[in-house]
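Hi V.,

Quick status before I head out on leave. The structure for the redesign project is tokenized and pasted below; the design run finished overnight.
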């Protein structure tokens, strides 16, 4: 069927309010902000529909924030939303690419001890200080976002003197500090504006906001910034291009699949390489030297066949195992999930494989109805702690020391959306401490 005929058929079968909605969208696109729409009575006559149909279409347009209504005055075209790609680009670069004049207004700069969450994200010791930089982001002079940026105060001491209004932070990192950014972990969630945010952003208290949290790494895998930005939901939207995988992974890609007993030797090789690359100085050198792939392969073969744990691996296009994650029921609380292991071979680092494996494990646990998710990590493994902090994990105060390794471990918890408290006193199963993420997690 030709495209025009198909489109006509779809319009004919669409509800009247849907057809009216689409026609009004086209009308709005040709009108400037603040322009008034025809009154309901005129829309009824023009489009041959009832008052109920008109009101249903207008309610949908208002919910989409394409229009706003003023009682006794009429219906008007709302301010067009700014659209931005999700990617590792600066606010300044994105606004200019969209033909919008970017701007920033520096609100406050302070130096203080890092909170536990920020210190973990930036991989800082507990006593380290951070710079907290608060800025209002502007588009054509209008406030659209409130940004709070955290930096290692020792490394970036003095940067605030150069970070005035309308200065690109990423350009400053490149020109003054030689920093080349490489990757970032970013989350988006919906929140509402408090009194202070509403005043700064020029929106009503309780208005919808988009909260973006980003941890950015440089080309050496070091955390550079941890930033939380509040965007006006009525002025901003984000866009991302997605593609469905069509089969085997291409060069540089990894395919996730369930592990089986035949993979045990390859899993053991990843385990040994990961420990020897990441744990010098964390566990005794004699422990690392004594790791035996054949012994570990037999043990992993039993774990892969376990009914209460699941193992997913990441494989390259040639079938080589690049990493794996083991997850299942929390041994101390059956209501919760547990990440038993997450390792990536050092040669496959910096490719996002660790993040993909963790996301897969969390998604599978969520699908099984587990509430919070727990894991154990070596306390001295700052890199892994930062990685997990970016995924929403935080210490719950539980500690342990396995005698055969002699290295302190701490328990991390990722609460469910209703934020249940971690079960007190839960103990992890003694099946070797595989929960400490190795350094090259990607």
């Amino acid at each position: 069927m030709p495209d025009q005929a198909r489109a006509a058929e779809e319009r004919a079968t669409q509800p009247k309010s849907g057809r009216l909605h689409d026609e009004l969208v086209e009308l709005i696109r040709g009108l400037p902000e603040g322009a008034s729409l025809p009154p309901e009575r005129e829309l009824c006559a023009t489009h041959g529909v009832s008052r109920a149909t008109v009101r249903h279409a207008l309610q949908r347009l208002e919910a989409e924030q394409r229009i706003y209504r003023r009682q006794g005055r009429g219906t008007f075209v709302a301010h067009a939303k700014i659209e931005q790609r999700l990617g590792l680009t600066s606010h300044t670069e994105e606004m200019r690419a969209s033909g919008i004049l970017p701007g920033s207004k520096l609100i406050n700069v302070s130096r203080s001890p890092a909170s536990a969450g920020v210190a973990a994200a930036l991989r800082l010791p507990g006593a380290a200080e951070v710079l907290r930089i608060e800025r209002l982001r502007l588009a054509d002079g209008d406030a659209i976002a409130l940004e709070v940026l955290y930096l290692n105060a020792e490394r970036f001491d003095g940067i605030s003197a150069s970070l005035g209004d309308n200065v690109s932070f990423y350009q400053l990192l490149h020109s003054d500090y030689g920093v080349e950014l490489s990757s970032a972990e970013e989350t988006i969630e919906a929140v509402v504006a408090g009194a202070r945010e509403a005043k700064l952003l020029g929106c009503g208290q309780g208005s919808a906001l988009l909260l973006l949290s980003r941890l950015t790494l440089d080309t050496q895998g070091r955390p550079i910034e941890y930033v939380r930005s509040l965007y006006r939901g009525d002025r901003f939207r984000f866009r991302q291009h997605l593609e469905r995988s069509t089969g085997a992974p291409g060069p540089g890609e990894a395919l996730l699949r369930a592990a089986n007993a035949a993979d045990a030797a390859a899993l053991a090789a990843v385990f040994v390489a990961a420990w020897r690359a990441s744990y010098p100085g964390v566990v005794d050198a004699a422990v690392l030297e004594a790791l035996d792939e054949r012994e570990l392969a037999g043990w992993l073969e039993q774990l892969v066949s376990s009914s209460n744990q699941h193992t997913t691996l990441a494989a390259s296009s040639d079938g080589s195992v690049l990493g794996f994650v083991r997850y299942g029921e929390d041994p101390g609380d059956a209501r919760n999930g547990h990440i038993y292991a997450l390792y990536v071979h050092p040669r496959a680092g910096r490719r996002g494989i660790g993040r993909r494996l963790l996301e897969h494990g969390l998604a599978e646990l969520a699908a099984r109805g587990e509430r919070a998710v727990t894991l154990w990590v070596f306390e001295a493994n700052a890199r892994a702690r930062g990685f997990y902090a970016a995924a929403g994990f935080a210490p719950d105060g539980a500690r342990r020391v396995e005698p055969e390794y002699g290295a302190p471990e701490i328990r991390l918890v990722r609460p469910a959306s209703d934020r249940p408290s971690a079960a007190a006193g839960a103990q992890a199963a003694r099946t070797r401490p595989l929960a400490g993420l190795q350094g090259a997690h990607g």
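Above is the designed sequence. The chain has a mean pLDDT of 81.

G. will cover questions while I'm gone.

Best,
W.
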